Amino acid sequence: MHGWKQGRRIASRCASLMLVVLTACGGGGGGGGNVPDPGPGPGGGGSGGNGAIIGGASEISSPSGPPTANVLDSLVVPAAQAAAATRSVAVASVAVRPRAVSLALPQWSDAPSPVMPMPGLPMQIGAPRELSSLQSAGDMARKLHWSETPEGAQVAAISITSAGAHGLRLGLVVDAMPDAAELRLYRKDRSKTGFETTGQAINEAIARNRRADGDTRAAGIWWTPDLGADEVTLEIALPAGLSTSQLRIAIPTLTHAYVNLALPTELELRDSLVPRNVGDAAGCELDASCADQYATERNAVARMTYVGSDNRYYYCTGSLLNNTRRDFTPYFLSANHCISTQASATSLRTDWFFRSASCNSFEPSAQTTALQRGATLLYATAAHDATLMRLNDAAPAGATLAGWDARGTAVTGTAIYGLHHPQGDLLKYSEGQVQSYRNCSLGAGSITCNPGNAQSDFVNVGWSKGVTEGGSSGSAMFAGGRVVGTLSGGSSSCTVSGGSDVYSRFDRTFSSQIGNWLAQ
User: Fold this and answer.
1) Residue 346's pLDDT band (boundaries 50, 70, 90)?
2) Beta-bridge partner residues of 105
3) Is residue 322 within 8 Å of residue 481, measured between CB atoms?
4) Residue 209 and residue 377: Cα distance in Å, rounded?
5) How many Cβ atoms sit within 10 Å of the Cβ of residue 491?
6) How many helices (H) and strands (E) in the chain?
7) Total-model pTM
8) Running DSSP on this structure, what letter comes out for residue 495?
9) Number of C-beta neighbours around residue 64 at 10 A
10) Is 183 helix (H, G, I), strand (E, B) or coil?
11) How far apart are CA 128 and CA 257, in angstroms?
């Protein structure tokens, strides 16, 4: 059977911070090396086990008692509940803008390229590169040049370039960081806009990782957001009275994006005679902006980018879910084979309203916005290949908290549809029906399925319009406007007829634990 062309999708073998963000470039001199990248491992997000409540903190304990409902309609987020805009927000000005120390990695001549992965491997969009001169806190301390502001604060900055990258994420290893520290991230060509956070937010994120994942290497890394260029400047400010010796951090690794997450303009596409829609999705994919019958549901779906426990960069798809309290809590559903650790959830970026401005246009919607503060992992189950998170940002205005149906109504012959981001492209839709039940198990980067019955945890879906691809993993299957499944893998393809996909059944996932959060 044919697996997906690329993607964080598992091939099917079936038998019968206070936060502000932006986009920006720069250069410099310095040194560094490459981490050999053998390709993606069998699970960038780690292993979630057969089913586990994640974390030891009471704030994310599973609510007690059985679910109080098994079906719920959608809810649209009003402006009053929405997150602050994350585009074109100014970073705080400082009286003394420190001169950044420059460190540059050369053009990566043997950088990985997006290729057809082995079945069951993820859609990798970036790979790690070693920063040999920043391996320890001592290395970092020797690199930084501190300046004093008129108020007595200390500021320093370092500009890091990985030539040829479409984006960078710096992996900060924190030995010690004062809560009062302020970190700013910007590009040299756009130094007045970017991202801001605090030492407290970073310390809390790493503590959350370790409570959930243990004292693993991945849990101790805080990944900076991607600003969409091959250069990024990290500026650190310590208030008056704090010694620079109280900051002990290293940046031993960065993640170099070799896939362009940004979209070309319509003019760029037309000038290069691109003969299809924006992005890399296959030609038979269908533009979701043409499907006004799904206008409510499509606003529940986000493109996901995140760093796995292997320091590689990935695509997936996820969806917001409503809950019976109707309190706009941003519960977010995806696949366990996408994210199954708190460290990966912490690195999560979600892109909302990421679709074309009009039916079959090249231009992305002006509504498109990003949330970059990650998520709290609530529950991950390999048995059902599902993960429930709570975004650390409020959902944007106009987003939909999708309704769901846990009554087991997606039986054989049921008409269904999917909304997803194949290969990280603008939102697409697919239509088909449930063909059969499947018994499936996850392992070694693949999903193995056999014929099942009405008690099985998965269903097999055939498509009459559209397909799914790498990057579609974790996307929801809908029936009658409600979520009834989550995409695990399959063999559907624009070039091979008769392919099908496997979705985990939402009713089975709901009864395992997720319903305790959604229906209280």
Assistant:
1) very high
2) 162
3) no
4) 9
5) 21
6) 6, 31
7) 0.87
8) S
9) 7
10) strand
11) 9
- The residue behind tokens 């429930």 is 388
Residue 424 has which token pair? Answer: 């990280």
Strands (E) in 292-427, as ranges, are 301-307, 313-321, 331-334, 349-352, 369-371, 375-381, 386-391, 400-401, 403-405, 415-420
- 207: Cα separation from own chain's centroid: 20
CA-CA distance, 255 to 169, in Å (whole number)?
Answer: 5
pLDDT number for residue 363 = 81
CA–CA dist 46, 332 (Å, integer): 18
State how far the Cα of 295 lies from the Cα of 280, in Å rounded to an integer.
23
Per DSSP, what are the bridge partners of residue 330? Answer: none
| CA of residue 364 relative to chain centroid, distance | 19
Burial of 276: CB neighbours in 10 Å, binned 0-12, 13-18, 19+: middle
Residue 303's CB: how many other CB atoms inside 10 A? Answer: 25
Alpha-carbon Rg of the chain, whole angstroms? 22
User: In this structure, are residues 362 and 425 in contact, taking their beta carbons and an 8 Å threshold?
Assistant: no
Amino acid at site 243: S
* Distance of alpha carbon 106 from the chain centroid: 27
> Does 13 score more than 70 pLDDT?
no
Strands 400-401 and 52-53, sheet pairing: unpaired
Closest CA to 386 of 503, 239, 286: 503
